[in-house]
Specification:
heterodimer, A: mainly alpha, two-stranded antiparallel sheet, 26 helices, about 75% helix, B: mainly alpha, 21 helices, globular
Chain lengths: ~650, ~500
């Protein structure tokens, strides 16, 4: 039995789960819904594992499976096809694996919901997994776009899951509309591909015989730059990069497992997938790569600075996600495609874990999210504390946890490209270490600062919630070993070697500076030591905070208010938009256009009233008019002929 | 006779026409409704059967044969000739499908003077069918007016307070347009070559297509036709009647107007305007595209701050039609193919949207967006349907409009990159206004005003269910509609590029 024949089941099973849970949400018990929702993802996961084993077989080559023609006329063809290669396999494992854990976790986290709400939640979550799988399995950009918008939709539905509160709905709407800005770029890029190359399927575009590679070396590079920039617009919106990142922190309004799955582990990394998938295009457009590197780096540092002063546990993690995504784009921008994918994977482990652990904390604190009202939780929430601690070590880049290796691979590639990138990147990494250990310290150590009621109620979460934490913690520890740097041996970078067929064309084309192993070891040690120092400093500094964490003055106040970016966007875009709309509605439509229309009506009315006077019935005046008319006709006849 | 070329167009015409006249003389209200419903179902059955005989759609030349069913006025070269090509099949099917659903929504409602109401409704269907099947300019004009006149009466006699004023505006706009078109038709007629021994000129469509008009003539004739169609669509700035009429008129008429009648304008442009005046089209296309894009943005802006639910739907519809109008004048395969598919998609999407709005206003008595809220808790199924309909309206992938908008945008991109860069911004705006409406009406806490809102009943469930199923199925598998219409697109392009 060849698993490739069953590949359609991988997305279809979650879709079936979505339909059953959605339509039967009033009939099915919560237990059934939970089991069904998780089981479908689990089977997809098993199939994904089988696919993965297929792809590591020697002699495996990229597989394209055509199902039907989605759109076809004349020479315009959009096939509905899937493409399976190494990149897809990695993403499949991340999506279904972490997706499964988060589904299991959700059965505990969402227990308090009504039957209807529980069914709706799992239906949406399954639909999300379906869309995400469609996104990575797609064999051309149009089908990928389906998944791309599908995940936007699910994100919208899940952020606004508690739809009675308009704050949630606003956040949901903001996420969708900002993503649509990127979608517009994505669509234009597709049209441009069709206009220039007549296709949007990966196989004909990126093969080495007659694809974009051969076409573009003979053509000019405007096409490559235009298309790649437009795709990057899409990626920047989906992966929350400057200037389109503001939706992601707001998206924390959704249930916490949703933040873990969608807004940390999977959906927001779709932008990285898009760029990695199109790596040949990007390699042909070095200009775009520079832009990506700069925007990625700027986002990484900017978001890390904001995270320093956030007091909401989920907001800190949200800005941290934005910042980490910035690192991934930095990696892409300097041509370290597989390092970026590596960081996607490790980030999925530790950031998924951080969110789930945060969910466990919020659960224990009866919904409280302000870290200045927590403290000392390590005693009551043992498992949560340990796993959270591991995740913090991983994200802070302490060796040998997973985040260290992936971040290091990106940073050393950045050093090779431009040492300034490296220095700034390390600065951002130290900021990361600082805010994470501030968060850890404020939440788990010191004395409890909440109400008595909350203290009384403190409890560790049930096993369905702690087991996913434990599994993710293990992955966060060991996940880095599949991507060891070359220093440790010729074939140490297992993931890099596995993904190399995807990026081989780019590798040939990219002009890369290499750095010696000695330099690399020095760089690694420097970052590691600095990170550890910062971690200890931050942890001690915030053990027993004297303030309530609110600072209203100076730079700290500005940072706490996120540099007022939301307010600026409102003032520059949203409010003028509304004003122009009212102007159109009340002035242009009513006064100008209708004014003209009614004016014409009045003119006809008026002139016919005047004309009526001509028909006076007096023969004399008729004769007079006749004579005048004849005279005029004669004049015209004589003088103008 | 079944399956021959004339049977279907004739049946599609005569069934609503005859039943409409009969309905006028019925007495009992429920009897009237049942009769009208069955009549419209009968039309639908005929239309569905006709779809199995669409082979002719794949022989586009067949359409231009001399397919006269009977002589009408041979002495002036006009004959009562009708026929269907792919576009015709699609639009007559849309018409046939919409009417039973529209009539079904009225079952629980009371109408003053029901026989007249439903009689006029069916007569308007006959008129619309006639427009879509006519292959003779005079027949086309005749049905164009026949479709409008019943609607003038429907809108002016049943509706809200200012309905007379609104209908008058509608009348002035459309009638001016129609008269200009009549002048245009007559002028072109006088230049047609002789095709039969009975008369020097001919009104038949093939004669019109073969007329050689000087470039100078084309330039002004273009506008005579254009205004008539632009008012119907409506293209900015000919639109101000539409929100007003949609706000004031009764729901069934509004559904007919927005789901089907606006397609008459689009259809008219594709069938009559572009092939007859190709040179003028290529002169004025940039101007028209810019007007259409202005309309697209103008309407998207206004929809965003609209407080009246009915006006909101009107503006969102104007926005969509702006895109369609721009795509028509791009005149390339992708854009026209997109317009074809979108004509059907827009029809069922907007019909579904109206049905939801109708339900809300009827249960709560409110159509102010700000006064509603929390309907999702009151009526989860309605919310479920509305979300899918809204997504269809903003062209999310896997809903029907995605395919059509994708093709239209692609066509615009092929024509001119920069127009596409501007036009694509509309997908952001449409998401903004649609989701705002969904949020304010359906989400949030229940406002006190929506207490009377009940869960939807069985028949409403089926009406919306059918439309929503259509939205999803055509979103996943659009090929049937594309296959049906692609020959029409080819033949139009052949005529334009001859």
């Amino acid at each position: 039995m060849n698993v490739m024949n069953w590949i359609l089941l991988i997305p279809l099973l979650p879709l079936a789960g979505c339909l059953i849970n959605g339509l039967g949400r009033n009939q099915l018990s919560k237990r059934t819904v939970g089991v069904l929702g998780s089981l479908t993802i689990f089977i997809s996961f098993c199939l994904s594992v089988a696919v993965f084993f297929e792809t590591i077989k020697p002699g495996f080559s990229t597989k394209v499976i055509n199902y039907f023609n989605f759109i076809k006329f004349e020479n315009f063809l959009v096939p509905f096809n899937f493409q399976v290669d190494q990149l897809t396999a990695v993403y499949l494992l991340i999506i279904t694996g972490i997706g499964f854990l988060i589904h299991v976790y959700s059965t505990g986290y969402m227990k308090e919901e009504t039957n209807e709400g529980f069914g709706r939640y799992f239906s949406f979550l399954n639909l999300f997994v379906f869309s995400m799988l469609l996104l990575v399995l797609a064999g051309n950009y149009v089908i990928m776009y389906m998944g791309w918008e599908g995940v936007s939709l699910c994100s919208y539905l899940l952020i606004g899951f508690w739809f009675k509160d308009h704050a949630n709905n606003d956040a949901a709407k903001k996420a969708f509309v900002m993503n649509r800005i990127g979608d517009a770029g994505f669509l234009l890029a597709i049209f441009w591909l069709y206009a220039s190359f007549g296709t949007a399927s990966y196989q004909p575009l990126y093969n080495s015989e007659n694809g974009i590679l051969t076409a573009l070396t003979t053509l000019n590079t405007t096409d490559a730059i235009g298309i790649s920039l437009l795709f990057f617009l899409g990626a920047a919106a989906k992966s929350a990069q400057i200037p389109l990142y503001t939706w992601l922190p707001d998206a924390m309004a959704g249930p916490t497992p949703v933040s873990a799955l969608i807004h940390a582990a999977t959906m927001v990394t779709a932008g990285i997938y898009l760029v990695a998938r199109s790596n040949i295009l990007y390699t042909l457009a070095p200009f775009t790569l520079h832009i990506i590197a700069i925007i990625g780096l700027a986002t990484a540092i900017f978001a890390a600075i904001i995270a320093l002063k956030q007091n909401d546990i989920k907001k800190v993690l949200a800005y941290s996600t934005v910042s980490q995504l910035g690192y991934m784009f930095l990696g892409l921008g300097v041509g370290a495609y597989s390092a970026a994918v590596f960081h996607v994977m490790t980030h999925a482990f530790f950031k998924g874990l951080l969110f789930l652990a945060a969910g466990s904390v919020i659960h224990a604190m009866s919904g409280e999210q302000n870290i200045y009202k927590m403290g000392g939780l390590s005693k009551k929430l043992g498992i949560t504390y340990i796993t959270f601690f591991i995740a913090c070590l991983a994200i802070a880049g302490v060796p040998p946890f997973s985040g260290f290796f992936s971040k290091d691979e990106i940073l050393s590639a950045a050093f090779a490209s431009n040492p300034v990138y490296y220095v700034l990147g390390v600065a951002g990494a130290l900021l990361t270490a600082f805010y994470m250990f501030r968060l850890l310290s404020l939440t788990f150590s010191g004395k409890f600062r909440g109400t008595h009621e909350q203290e009384h109620h403190l409890h560790e979460s049930p096993p369905v919630m702690t087991w996913p934490l434990i599994i993710l913690a293990i992955l966060a520890v060991v996940g880095g070993f599949i991507g060891l740097p070359e220093v440790f041996g010729e074939h140490a970078n297992v993931l890099g070697n596995f993904l190399s067929p995807i990026f081989s064309h780019s590798e040939h084309l990219l002009v890369k500076n290499t750095i010696s192993h000695n330099t690399e070891i020095i760089l690694m040690s420097v970052t590691a030591v600095l990170s550890i120092i910062v971690c200890l400093w931050a942890f001690n500094k915030y053990k027993n905070p004297s303030t309530d964490g609110e600072s209203r003055k100076g730079l700290a106040g500005i940072i706490e208010n996120k540099f007022y970016i939301d307010e600026i966007y409102d003032a520059v875009f949203v409010n003028p938009y509304r004003r122009v709309a009212y102007f159109f509605q009340n002035i242009v439509d009513v006064k100008v256009i209708d004014g003209v229309v009614n004016g014409v009506g009045r003119f006809v009315n008026y002139s016919s009233r005047q004309m009526r006077l001509l028909q006076s019935g007096l023969v004399g005046s008729y004769l007079l008019l006749m004579v005048i008319g004849m005279v005029i006709l004669f004049i015209i006849q004589f003088f103008f002929k | 006779m079944l399956g021959t070329y004339f049977t279907f167009p004739e049946l599609l015409l005569w069934i609503p026409l005859i039943t409409g006249v009969i309905t006028l003389f019925l007495k009992n209200e429920s009897q009237v409704k049942r009769f009208a419903f069955i009549a419209s179902l009968l039309t639908l059955v005929v239309s569905v059967i006709s779809l199995f005989f669409t082979d002719v759609a794949h022989h586009p030349n067949y359409f231009y044969y001399n397919n006269v069913s009977y002589l009408w006025m041979p002495y002036i070269g006009s004959s009562f000739s009708v026929g269907l090509d792919g576009m015709g099949f699609l639009l007559t099917f849309l018409t046939a499908l919409s009417y039973p659903l529209i009539i079904a929504t009225t079952f629980k409602r009371e109408f003053k003077n029901a026989p007249a109401f439903f009689g006029l409704l069916l007569l308007s269907q006959a008129g619309i069918m006639g427009v879509f099947v006519a292959t003779d300019a005079l027949v086309f004009y005749f049905f164009w007016e026949l479709a409008l006149i019943p609607l003038y009466f429907l809108c002016s006699r049943w509706g809200a307070e200012k309905r007379i004023q609104a209908t008058f505006k509608f009348f002035v706009y459309t009638f001016t347009g129609s008269l200009l078109m009549l002048v245009g038709i007559l002028y072109v007629y006088l230049h047609t070559p002789q095709v039969s021994a009975n008369s020097i000129h001919s009104f038949s469509i093939s004669a019109f297509y073969n007329t050689v008009l000087s470039y100078g003539d084309q330039q002004w004739l273009f506008w005579l036709f254009f205004v008539a169609f632009a008012v119907k669509i409506p293209i900015w700035p000919f639109h101000t009647w539409q929100p007003f009429v949609y706000e004031q008129a009764n729901y069934p008429s509004v559904m007919v107007l927005s789901a089907i009648m606006v397609k008459m304008g689009v259809f008219g442009m594709i069938r009559w305007l572009i092939p007859i005046f190709p040179e003028a089209v290529f002169t004025f296309n940039h101007l028209v595209i810019i007007l259409s894009l202005i309309g697209l943005f103008y309407a998207s802006f206004i929809a965003f701050v609209q407080s009246d639910l009915k006006r909101f739907v009107a503006w969102s519809s104007i926005a969509h039609l702006g895109l369609m109008a721009a795509s028509i004048f791009v005149v390339n395969t992708s854009a026209l193919q997109g317009v074809m598919v979108e004509m059907f998609n827009h029809g069922i999407n907007i019909l579904a949207l109206w049905i939801v709005v109708d339900l809300i206003e009827n249960s709560t008595g409110i159509k102010k967006i700000n006064e509603l809220g929390g309907l999702a808790t009151k009526s989860p199924w309605l919310a479920f349907f509305l979300v899918i309909i809204a997504l269809g309206n903003i062209a999310l992938p896997l809903t029907n409009s995605f395919v059509s908008e994708f093709l239209m945008f692609n066509g615009i991109f092929v024509f001119n990159k920069w127009y596409a860069f501007v036009a694509i911004i509309s997908i952001i705006l449409s998401a903004g206004y649609m989701l705002r409406m969904v949020q304010l009406v359906f989400f949030g806490k229940e406002s006190g005003a929506v207490e009377n809102m009940k869960s939807i009943n069985c028949s409403q469930f089926w009406i919306l269910g059918i439309l929503v199923a259509g939205i999803l199925i055509l979103g996943i598998y659009p090929e049937p509609v594309i296959n049906l219409t692609k020959e029409s697109v080819d033949s139009i392009l052949k005529m334009v590029n001859r």
